[in-house]
Specification:
The complex is a heterodimer of chains A (about 290) and B (about 130). Chain A has about 290 residues and is mostly helical. Chain A folds into two domains: about 1-155, no CATH class; about 160-294, no CATH class. Chain A contains twelve helices and no strands. With about 130 residues, chain B is of the alpha+beta class. Chain B folds into two domains: about 1-40, no CATH class; about 45-130, Immunoglobulin-like. Chain B has one helix at about 15-40, and strands at about 1-5, 10, 45-55, 60-70, 75-85, 90-100, 105-110, 120-130. Chain B is elongated. Classes of the chains: A mainly alpha (about 290), B alpha+beta (about 130). At the A-B interface, helix 1, helix 2, helix 3, helix 4 and helix 5 of A face strand 1, strand 2 and helix 1 of B.
Chain lengths: ~290, ~130
């Protein structure tokens, strides 16, 4: 996973094979990924709406979530977790490893919490596993890349090299991963709907402005980790803001759809998107900078 | 030990194990969900209730088993039971269950104040639930 298939020297100055890491190094990397996965997703493993969605969601919804997660992992491993010279084979391999670890970790935690057992119907058990393990897998992917300092310093292209360019796929992928990681902890809850129902037009408008302002502060005005030292030109700033907030809103819509919160009323659904869009936009901008691993 | 695939992808034994496990788990999951999507017709929740008097327990206790034979989860299920003694409704009780997943079995208990009499029967007088 992450940057593991590169030649490297570890903290002790030991050099390694040009292509293959030792099993010990791999084990450390998995440990790092699992810790990262749990840090990002443990609240969701403790959230009853997530378990419920596991057995209330139609199987085709779950299927789509598995496919979307795999695509996000491919994107993250391509743009956020590995060097530019990684082949798609390596990216695909890493993504399968992360999915597998996500499923195993989720199974163990849910079993430990007695949320799954072998007496329950298999579709209930698999449903819960699917819903939880997908977020855990993204957390593992990000954790693997972000929690290992010594290896990531080498071979990665920072934002300085990319600054000023418009790499839409890169930005969209990392923004989507950040938005989903940050906002998925509140997306399944009823509170989103309650807040949307209880918000007037002025509240909604202010929420949009606050989301944009927070994104702008994070991306351009706070020397956030991973942010550029110098502010980019205005068109690039507008582009970054538009990408960040658009992805946040789309990720919100996707999460609302998956958790069965899309309402018959377009206005209410739009309000829910804006409400959920606040944490999603923070994730989309801050998460994007953080998980870009600068 | 390392294994090489093609020109660029290399594995050590641990990576190969985890990769294989991940691929098997993920593809099995996808296969299972695809099969379920194809197989299930979306039959609404169908709750089957079995009640049984438990003479071995103190008080006047009935054990209730609720099984969902449909193809969708039932939510907020409310089951109202009426106790009939000598042909007359004497007492009633309601059991509420948040979720009854497909094919799952939920167990509940109902305890009445009255003394048991010969010929008592427990009747499910109403059942309500929501589709998620």
């Amino acid at each position: 996973m992450g940057e593991k298939s590169h030649s490297s020297s570890d903290n002790n100055g030991q050099s390694h094979s040009a292509d293959v890491k030792s099993a010990t190094e791999t084990l450390k990397e998995y440990g790092r990924g699992i810790v990262g996965g749990l840090m990002f997703s443990l609240p969701l493993l403790y959230t009853m709406e997530m378990w419920w969605r596991g057995f209330t969601a139609p199987p085709e919804y779950l299927l789509i979530i598995v496919v979307v997660t795999y695509v996000l992992l491919l994107g993250y491993n391509r743009y956020g977790g590995m060097r530019k010279d990684s082949s798609w084979w390596e990216v695909a391999k890493d993504s399968f490893e992360e999915l597998g670890l996500g499923i195993i970790v989720s199974f163990l935690v849910l079993w430990l919490l007695n949320r799954i057992n072998f007496q329950m119907p298999h579709n209930e058990m698999i449903g819960k596993l699917v819903v939880e393990s997908m977020i855990v897998a993204i957390g593992i992917s990000v954790g693997t890349a972000q929690l290992g300092q010594s290896e990531k310093e080498q071979g990665k292209e920072g934002p300085e090299e990319k600054g000023g360019t418009f790499d839409v796929l890169h930005d969209v992928t990392l923004s989507a991963c950040g938005a989903i990681l940050f906002a998925s902890s509140v997306a399944p809850t009823m509170e989103i709907k309650m807040l949307a129902v209880g918000s007037g037009k002025l509240n909604i408008l202010l929420m949009i402005l606050i989301s944009l302002a927070l994104s702008a502060v994070i991306l351009f005005f706070s020397n956030f980790k991973g942010a550029r030292d110098q502010r980019p030109p205005i068109p690039k700033m507008i582009y970054d803001l538009v990408v960040s907030y658009s992805v946040a809103l789309l990720a919100s819509l996707g999460m609302l759809w998956f958790f069965g919160r899309i309402e018959n009323s377009i206005l209410l659904t739009a309000s829910e998107m804006v409400v959920l869009g606040i944490p999603a936009s923070i994730g989309s901008s801050a998460g994007r900078l953080l998980i870009d691993g600068q | 030990m390392s294994i090489k695939f093609g020109n660029k992808v290399h594995f050590n034994w641990l990576q190969l194990t985890v990769f294989s496990l991940g691929a098997i788990l993920s593809l099995s999951m996808i296969g299972y969900l695809a099969y379920q999507s194809f197989k299930l017709d979306g039959i609404p929740p169908k709750l089957e209730v079995v009640s049984r008097y438990r003479a071995d327990l103190p008080d006047y206790t009935w054990r209730l088993t609720v099984t969902n034979r449909g193809e969708e989860t039932a939510t907020n299920a409310n089951l109202k039971f009426t106790l009939y003694q000598k042909g007359k409704a004497t007492e009633s009780g309601t059991v509420s269950i948040s979720y009854v997943p497909i094919q799952s079995e939920q167990v509940g208990w109902i305890i009445f104040d009255r003394e048991r009499q010969k010929g008592d029967s427990l009747v499910l007088s109403s059942i309500t639930y929501l589709q998620p």
